[in-house]
Amino acid sequence: MLRLLLVVMVFASASAAWAMAQPTTKPEAAPPMAFDTYRFVLLAAAEEPPEVTRAEAGQLQRQHLGHLRKMAEAGHILVAGPFMDRFDQQWRGLVLYRGDLSIDEVRELAEADPSVQAGLMRVEVMTWVTEAGAMEFPTAVAPQE
What we know:
This protein is of the alpha+beta class. It is built from four helices and four strands, in the order αβαββααβ. It has helices at 2-21, 54-73, 103-111, 114-117, and strands at 35-45, 77-82, 91-98, 121-131. It has a four-stranded antiparallel β-sheet with strand order 2-3-1-4. Strand 2 and strand 3 form a beta hairpin. The longest helix is centred in the first third of the chain and has 20 residues, at 2-21.
């Protein structure tokens, strides 16, 4: 019993000494992180696409690319492109819009794509954030006022 009491006393003394040796000031908080916001649009195959001829598909592809070009020239799109080596064949491509557009505005613009209007593709729209300044898009067109 005496040994147990001595062990408890030694442990209590060591714990008190350790606590007293710890710094009493709190470490400085890290500065708040700044973020850039984007709207991320995934283009996917429609669940039940209509039958189209090869000529119609070619025309819709040209109109799709024209729509993307128009969105870029208006300064809405930063980058766009198709997926290669897809793990899931439904996913077709990605379009990254500027974050100054609302998610509803981006959805409206993305759904105006002729391939979406024709029922060949559908869009999934999300907000995406990165650390401020982490990404650059040197070929992006500035928004037109």
